[in-house]
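QA checklist item 7 of 12: single-chain prediction sanity check.
[x] sequence parsed
[x] length recorded as 364
[x] structure emitted
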Amino acid sequence: MRKIPECLKGKPYPSFISEHIIFKAYQEVEKVFPKIGLANCKEKAPSVSKEEITATIAANIVKHLRFVIRTSVSTSRVNGEYYDYVNSMYCTRPSGWRQAILNTRKILLSLIEKLESNPNSFASRKNDVVSFRLPETISIGNLQLGKGKDLVRELRKLNDALHFKTRVNASIAPHKQLLRNKLAQTKNTKIVFSSNDKDGLWDIATMSMRGIRSCQRWGNGNYSACLIGSMVDPYAGILYLANGKTKLGSKMTKRAVVRFVINRKTNKPALMVERIYPNAGHDDETDEQTLALFSKFLAKKTNNKFPIIYGEDNESRSHFIPLSDQVDDLMTFQDESVSYRDSGINYRAAPKNLFKRIEKAYSK
């Protein structure tokens, strides 16, 4: 294992990284990932099938519709009148307003059930573009989603039908991009994992410098210093898709920090994928597919010995990152260089002899 000062040589690191005192105090950092089969590696990214696209887009639509239902105004708490701030007056809600909301929820719940049970029945493909059409009519009261109709358009009609003077629902119609994805997206793309040695430290340090911009871009203030925390954290690595080149190396088209984490209740390890970048608001179907691709890759490399969780999901809150001496020192001195965690996951004292336990468990 080469020492960190040696790994930093020959690369154009900015001074706030190359001159940080942590690299003088800890000249060697043993990353956990090579012990579980995740040595630095690169391979051709698999092409995305129609079935995978269908499943991930359907899952995202279900997630969106659930959000709509959760955030809808509860009918039991809504008064018959509301205050119109634009016209500075009290107004009476339209007749049948409450029932319309109840029917909307029912029709969305029915749609969710059908999407979950058979998402492929909604999918149609033309010129490598997947779109969604309703396989059958769904009717609740006077509301209807028509058979064979484009799902986006039908949901927008449903939204328009509920467009009263005061909005009571979040937008029902998913963004148009949720229902489209080109199969050629992963063409000529490599999937790369790294964490240690010269390549790993460089990949982590340049995660926001090679095609993806984020708050950790060099010279972007305090958050760029967080790269140092990820470089010295034994339980942090990076997984990304590469296609093309930049001045600093291969171009990252999608990337996420990968963390080795521990379940707080069971004390069992897992691999957590932090938020996938770029995080593009409504265009989340790519993230769903990237997450599926990343999860499959991690599971394969580690022989399915660890659960794969996503930092954006609630499940991540039941886990913690083992606290290493390096990170403990950064935190003790309130250094701004502690690894940036979109998930908000905390550090916690590691189980005794963690590295030895990992090696023993993985060798079985």
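[x] summary fact logged: The chain has a mean pLDDT of 82.
[ ] second reviewer sign-off
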